[in-house]
Amino acid sequence: MALSETQRHRCALALVAKVPLPELGEIDSRLSPPLSPDDASALKFCFLRDITANLSNIIDSGRAEGAVIYSPAGAESALRELLPDGFKLFRQRGDKLGDALANATEDLLNRGFPAVCLLNSYAPTVPRALIEVAIDELSRPGDRVVLGGAKGGGYYLIGLNEPHRDLLDRISSGSANVVAHITASAARIGLKVEMLPTWYEVGDAITLKRLNEELLAASRQPTGSGRRDKAHSAPYTRQFLAKLSETEHGRRILQGEVF
Questions:
Q1: What pTM, to 2 d.p., does this model score?
Q2: In terms of residue numbers, what domain contains 24?
Protein backbone atom coordinates (compact mmCIF):
# COMPACT_ATOMS: atom_id res chain seq x y z
CA MET A 1 0.00 0.00 0.00
CA ALA A 2 1.46 3.36 -1.07
CA LEU A 3 2.01 6.07 1.50
CA SER A 4 0.41 9.48 1.20
CA GLU A 5 2.65 12.51 0.71
CA THR A 6 2.17 13.41 4.38
CA GLN A 7 3.12 9.91 5.55
CA ARG A 8 6.31 9.99 3.47
CA HIS A 9 7.74 12.56 5.91
CA ARG A 10 7.03 10.44 9.01
CA CYS A 11 9.39 8.02 10.69
CA ALA A 12 8.16 4.44 11.13
CA LEU A 13 8.19 3.40 14.80
CA ALA A 14 8.25 -0.39 14.62
CA LEU A 15 7.95 -2.53 17.74
CA VAL A 16 9.57 -5.95 17.22
CA ALA A 17 7.58 -8.42 19.30
CA LYS A 18 6.93 -12.08 19.90
CA VAL A 19 3.36 -12.48 21.12
CA PRO A 20 3.14 -15.10 23.91
CA LEU A 21 0.25 -17.28 22.76
CA PRO A 22 0.65 -20.91 23.92
CA GLU A 23 -2.09 -22.07 21.56
CA LEU A 24 0.18 -20.93 18.70
CA GLY A 25 3.27 -22.51 20.22
CA GLU A 26 4.71 -19.26 21.58
CA ILE A 27 5.47 -18.69 25.27
CA ASP A 28 7.53 -16.06 27.02
CA SER A 29 10.68 -17.73 28.32
CA ARG A 30 12.77 -14.67 29.18
CA LEU A 31 10.97 -13.97 32.48
CA SER A 32 9.95 -17.51 33.36
CA PRO A 33 11.54 -18.07 35.83
CA PRO A 34 11.27 -16.12 38.10
CA LEU A 35 7.65 -15.65 36.99
CA SER A 36 5.32 -18.50 36.19
CA PRO A 37 4.71 -19.00 32.45
CA ASP A 38 1.23 -17.49 32.75
CA ASP A 39 2.46 -14.44 34.66
CA ALA A 40 5.38 -13.95 32.27
CA SER A 41 2.99 -13.96 29.32
CA ALA A 42 0.58 -11.59 31.06
CA LEU A 43 3.43 -9.19 31.83
CA LYS A 44 4.59 -9.28 28.20
CA PHE A 45 1.11 -8.24 27.08
CA CYS A 46 1.34 -5.32 29.52
CA PHE A 47 4.68 -4.35 27.96
CA LEU A 48 3.12 -4.36 24.49
CA ARG A 49 0.21 -2.19 25.61
CA ASP A 50 2.42 0.30 27.43
CA ILE A 51 5.03 0.65 24.69
CA THR A 52 2.48 1.19 21.94
CA ALA A 53 0.55 3.66 24.11
CA ASN A 54 3.78 5.60 24.61
CA LEU A 55 4.48 5.55 20.87
CA SER A 56 0.94 6.76 20.21
CA ASN A 57 1.79 10.05 21.92
CA ILE A 58 4.46 10.64 19.28
CA ILE A 59 2.31 9.34 16.45
CA ASP A 60 -0.53 11.69 17.43
CA SER A 61 1.83 14.64 17.11
CA GLY A 62 2.17 13.83 13.40
CA ARG A 63 5.85 12.90 13.50
CA ALA A 64 5.59 9.14 13.03
CA GLU A 65 3.56 6.09 12.04
CA GLY A 66 3.23 3.00 14.23
CA ALA A 67 3.91 -0.62 13.30
CA VAL A 68 4.41 -3.97 15.01
CA ILE A 69 6.74 -6.57 13.51
CA TYR A 70 5.27 -9.68 15.07
CA SER A 71 5.48 -13.43 15.42
CA PRO A 72 4.03 -16.06 15.46
CA ALA A 73 1.64 -16.27 12.53
CA GLY A 74 -1.94 -16.13 13.73
CA ALA A 75 -1.31 -13.49 16.42
CA GLU A 76 -3.10 -10.75 14.48
CA SER A 77 -6.42 -10.90 16.31
CA ALA A 78 -4.75 -10.83 19.74
CA LEU A 79 -2.70 -7.81 18.71
CA ARG A 80 -5.70 -5.95 17.33
CA GLU A 81 -7.41 -6.30 20.69
CA LEU A 82 -4.62 -4.62 22.64
CA LEU A 83 -3.00 -2.14 20.24
CA PRO A 84 -4.11 1.47 19.86
CA ASP A 85 -5.84 2.32 16.59
CA GLY A 86 -3.65 2.97 13.57
CA PHE A 87 -0.81 0.52 14.16
CA LYS A 88 0.04 -1.53 11.08
CA LEU A 89 0.91 -5.21 11.49
CA PHE A 90 3.76 -6.90 9.64
CA ARG A 91 4.58 -10.57 10.04
CA GLN A 92 8.19 -11.10 11.09
CA ARG A 93 10.35 -12.41 8.25
CA GLY A 94 13.42 -14.35 9.32
CA ASP A 95 14.09 -16.78 12.14
CA LYS A 96 17.12 -14.99 13.57
CA LEU A 97 16.84 -11.60 15.23
CA GLY A 98 19.24 -9.96 12.78
CA ASP A 99 17.30 -11.23 9.77
CA ALA A 100 14.02 -10.01 11.28
CA LEU A 101 15.47 -6.56 11.98
CA ALA A 102 17.04 -6.24 8.53
CA ASN A 103 13.91 -7.44 6.72
CA ALA A 104 11.66 -5.12 8.73
CA THR A 105 13.89 -2.14 7.97
CA GLU A 106 13.93 -2.90 4.25
CA ASP A 107 10.18 -3.51 4.11
CA LEU A 108 9.34 -0.21 5.79
CA LEU A 109 11.85 1.88 3.85
CA ASN A 110 10.58 0.31 0.61
CA ARG A 111 7.08 1.45 1.54
CA GLY A 112 8.29 5.03 1.42
CA PHE A 113 9.12 5.85 5.01
CA PRO A 114 12.21 8.09 5.22
CA ALA A 115 13.48 6.40 8.38
CA VAL A 116 12.75 3.47 10.69
CA CYS A 117 13.15 3.07 14.44
CA LEU A 118 13.09 -0.56 15.59
CA LEU A 119 12.07 -0.91 19.23
CA ASN A 120 12.64 -3.68 21.77
CA SER A 121 9.43 -5.10 23.28
CA TYR A 122 11.07 -5.71 26.69
CA ALA A 123 11.74 -2.04 27.48
CA PRO A 124 8.37 -0.61 28.58
CA THR A 125 9.69 2.46 30.41
CA VAL A 126 11.87 4.04 27.70
CA PRO A 127 11.21 7.79 27.87
CA ARG A 128 9.30 9.34 25.02
CA ALA A 129 11.99 12.04 24.86
CA LEU A 130 14.66 9.53 23.81
CA ILE A 131 12.53 8.25 20.94
CA GLU A 132 11.91 11.82 19.82
CA VAL A 133 15.66 12.48 19.82
CA ALA A 134 16.11 9.46 17.53
CA ILE A 135 13.49 10.83 15.13
CA ASP A 136 15.26 14.21 15.15
CA GLU A 137 18.63 12.62 14.37
CA LEU A 138 17.22 10.55 11.51
CA SER A 139 15.52 13.61 9.99
CA ARG A 140 18.86 15.38 9.53
CA PRO A 141 20.66 15.16 6.17
CA GLY A 142 23.03 12.26 5.74
CA ASP A 143 23.14 8.52 6.26
CA ARG A 144 23.45 7.41 9.90
CA VAL A 145 22.43 4.83 12.47
CA VAL A 146 20.92 5.85 15.81
CA LEU A 147 21.45 3.42 18.68
CA GLY A 148 19.79 3.18 22.05
CA GLY A 149 21.77 0.58 23.97
CA ALA A 150 20.41 -1.50 26.83
CA LYS A 151 22.55 -2.39 29.81
CA GLY A 152 24.16 -5.75 29.19
CA GLY A 153 24.78 -5.10 25.50
CA GLY A 154 21.29 -5.33 24.05
CA TYR A 155 19.25 -2.54 22.48
CA TYR A 156 16.05 -0.62 23.05
CA LEU A 157 16.14 1.32 19.75
CA ILE A 158 17.86 0.97 16.38
CA GLY A 159 17.21 3.78 13.92
CA LEU A 160 18.15 3.76 10.24
CA ASN A 161 17.42 5.81 7.14
CA GLU A 162 19.06 3.32 4.76
CA PRO A 163 18.75 -0.51 4.83
CA HIS A 164 22.35 -1.51 5.76
CA ARG A 165 21.65 -5.22 6.10
CA ASP A 166 25.31 -5.80 6.95
CA LEU A 167 24.77 -4.02 10.29
CA LEU A 168 22.13 -6.48 11.41
CA ASP A 169 22.33 -9.81 9.61
CA ARG A 170 24.54 -11.69 12.09
CA ILE A 171 22.71 -10.70 15.27
CA SER A 172 21.15 -13.74 16.93
CA SER A 173 18.08 -13.93 19.15
CA GLY A 174 18.90 -13.07 22.74
CA SER A 175 22.21 -11.55 21.66
CA ALA A 176 23.93 -9.52 24.36
CA ASN A 177 26.25 -7.71 21.96
CA VAL A 178 23.83 -5.98 19.59
CA VAL A 179 25.28 -2.50 20.10
CA ALA A 180 28.89 -3.70 19.88
CA HIS A 181 28.12 -5.60 16.68
CA ILE A 182 26.38 -2.64 15.04
CA THR A 183 28.99 -0.07 16.03
CA ALA A 184 31.83 -2.29 14.79
CA SER A 185 30.02 -2.94 11.51
CA ALA A 186 29.28 0.78 11.10
CA ALA A 187 32.95 1.62 11.65
CA ARG A 188 33.98 -0.79 8.89
CA ILE A 189 31.78 0.97 6.32
CA GLY A 190 32.31 4.50 7.63
CA LEU A 191 28.70 4.96 8.77
CA LYS A 192 28.05 7.65 11.36
CA VAL A 193 26.67 6.37 14.69
CA GLU A 194 24.55 8.55 16.98
CA MET A 195 24.30 7.09 20.49
CA LEU A 196 21.32 7.69 22.76
CA PRO A 197 21.58 7.42 26.55
CA THR A 198 21.60 3.85 27.82
CA TRP A 199 18.34 2.44 29.18
CA TYR A 200 17.45 -1.11 30.22
CA GLU A 201 15.38 -4.04 29.03
CA VAL A 202 13.56 -6.40 31.39
CA GLY A 203 14.83 -9.94 30.90
CA ASP A 204 15.70 -11.44 34.28
CA ALA A 205 15.04 -11.25 38.01
CA ILE A 206 17.41 -8.31 38.52
CA THR A 207 15.87 -6.09 35.85
CA LEU A 208 12.37 -7.14 36.93
CA LYS A 209 13.24 -5.86 40.41
CA ARG A 210 14.50 -2.59 38.93
CA LEU A 211 11.31 -2.22 36.91
CA ASN A 212 9.18 -2.73 39.99
CA GLU A 213 11.17 -0.18 42.00
CA GLU A 214 11.09 2.36 39.18
CA LEU A 215 7.35 2.14 38.63
CA LEU A 216 6.56 2.23 42.34
CA ALA A 217 8.70 5.35 42.72
CA ALA A 218 7.10 6.94 39.66
CA SER A 219 3.61 6.30 41.01
CA ARG A 220 4.44 8.30 44.15
CA GLN A 221 5.64 11.38 42.27
CA PRO A 222 3.24 14.28 41.53
CA THR A 223 1.89 14.36 37.99
CA GLY A 224 4.15 16.37 35.73
CA SER A 225 7.12 16.32 38.10
CA GLY A 226 10.67 15.42 37.15
CA ARG A 227 12.72 15.80 33.99
CA ARG A 228 11.30 15.63 30.50
CA ASP A 229 13.21 12.40 29.82
CA LYS A 230 11.88 10.56 32.87
CA ALA A 231 10.79 6.94 32.51
CA HIS A 232 7.50 6.21 30.85
CA SER A 233 4.91 5.50 33.55
CA ALA A 234 3.84 2.17 31.96
CA PRO A 235 0.45 2.03 33.73
CA TYR A 236 -0.57 -1.46 32.57
CA THR A 237 2.73 -2.90 33.73
CA ARG A 238 2.52 -1.01 37.01
CA GLN A 239 -0.98 -2.34 37.69
CA PHE A 240 0.14 -5.89 36.98
CA LEU A 241 3.13 -5.63 39.31
CA ALA A 242 0.97 -4.10 42.04
CA LYS A 243 -1.41 -7.05 41.78
CA LEU A 244 1.47 -9.52 41.82
CA SER A 245 2.92 -7.92 44.94
CA GLU A 246 -0.26 -8.66 46.89
CA THR A 247 0.99 -12.22 47.54
CA GLU A 248 4.03 -13.12 49.61
CA HIS A 249 5.56 -15.12 46.74
CA GLY A 250 4.94 -12.25 44.32
CA ARG A 251 6.61 -9.76 46.65
CA ARG A 252 9.65 -12.02 46.94
CA ILE A 253 9.90 -12.26 43.15
CA LEU A 254 9.70 -8.48 42.70
CA GLN A 255 12.29 -7.93 45.45
CA GLY A 256 14.71 -10.22 43.63
CA GLU A 257 14.63 -12.99 46.20
CA VAL A 258 13.30 -15.66 43.81
CA PHE A 259 15.33 -16.52 40.69
A1: 0.92
A2: 7-201
